[in-house]
């Protein structure tokens, strides 16, 4: 499998980001969970995972790339599309975990420069993947709360749905913590989990950093994730970039 086209696309998008100098990106790589914020109206945020190495049951799987697109439909509402490409040890390449969500802020809070807890909801279909047995359609909905205590910012997630393989019910949860250690650099952590009926729980913990190298709207991340239950991968190591830019408005002459 060649990555040259993907690199060209990524390079183009980064260049567009740096030229247009957009207002912000939320940088919610490298987490499984998310925050109670959305992209500004007509703004596109791109979360690009360069590579994730996952070790599970003695075998390594490379996820390259992973991509999440967040487009601001209007104030406090965005459309979220995501997918990952996985390459197994025997060379098979699959599209995994594709999904399409609508995310809305129902109560503005600290992430919108308001006082108090911010609350959002995210819901939508889990789309068919190319993995055998995962070619159905599922559904997921999650409630999100974001709050700040002194220098610590916390995001709580709780949700559930039905999976794409056999319409089995599942539950998801997560908690993110962020602490700034110097201008442009945050140490971040996450504990998260997923429980599907009839399967072992997939619970894990993450430790990493998010770095904004300049005032431009681009964030780099690196993290290590460790499985804490038998249903989770043993280890994951991931790195990526998040950026965003306002799309031009085309007016009829």
Outline the fold blueprint:
Elements: H1 4-20, E1 43-56, E2 59-74, E3 77-87, E4 93-107, E5 118-126, E6 138-149, E7 152-162, E8 169-182, E9 185-196, E10 202-211, E11 218-227, E12 235-246
Antiparallel strand pairs: 1-2, 1-12, 2-3, 3-4, 4-5, 5-6, 6-7, 7-8, 8-9, 9-10, 10-11, 11-12
User: How many runs of DSSP E, i.e. beta strands?
Assistant: 12
Beta-strand share of residues = over 45%
For the sheet with most strands, the description reads: 12 strands, antiparallel, barrel
Helix content: under 10%
Uncertain residue segments: 1-25
Structural descriptors:
single chain, mainly beta
Tell me what you see in this structure:
With 253 residues, the protein is mainly beta. The protein is 7% helix and 58% strand. It has one helix and twelve strands; from the N terminus they run αββββββββββββ. Strands 1-2-3-4-5-6-7-8-9-10-11-12 form a twelve-stranded antiparallel β-barrel. Strand 10 and strand 11 form a beta hairpin. The radius of gyration is 18 Å and the shape is globular. The protein starts with a helix and ends in a 7-residue tail after the last strand. The model is unreliable at 1-25 (pLDDT under 50).
In brief:
The protein is mainly beta.
């Amino acid at each position: 499998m060649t990555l040259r086209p993907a690199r060209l696309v990524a390079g183009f998008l980064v260049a567009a980001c740096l030229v247009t100098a957009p207002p912000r990106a939320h940088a919610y790589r490298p987490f499984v969970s998310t925050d109670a914020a959305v992209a500004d109206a007509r703004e596109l945020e791109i979360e690009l995972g360069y590579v994730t190495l996952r070790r599970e049951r003695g075998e390594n799987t490379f996820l390259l790339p992973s991509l999440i697109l967040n487009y601001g439909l209007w104030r406090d509402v965005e459309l979220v599309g995501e997918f990952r490409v996985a390459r197994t040890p025997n060379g098979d390449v699959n599209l995994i975990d594709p999904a399409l969500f609508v995310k809305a802020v129902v109560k503005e809070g600290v992430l919108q420069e308001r006082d108090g807890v911010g609350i959002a909801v995210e819901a939508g279909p889990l789309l068919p993947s190319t993995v055998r047995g995962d070619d159905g359609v599922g559904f997921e909905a999650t409630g999100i709360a974001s709050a700040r205590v002194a220098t610590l910012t916390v995001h709580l997630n709780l949700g559930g749905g039905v999976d794409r393989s056999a319409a089995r019910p599942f539950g998801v949860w997560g908690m993110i913590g962020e602490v700034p250690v110097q201008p442009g650099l945050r140490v971040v952590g996450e504990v998260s989990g997923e429980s599907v009926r009839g399967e072992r729980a997939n619970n894990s913990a993450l430790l990493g950093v998010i770095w904004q190298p300049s005032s431009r709207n681009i964030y780099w991340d690196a993290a290590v994730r460790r499985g804490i239950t038998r249903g989770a991968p043993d280890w994951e190591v991931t790195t990526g970039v998040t950026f965003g830019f306002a799309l031009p408005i085309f007016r009829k002459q």
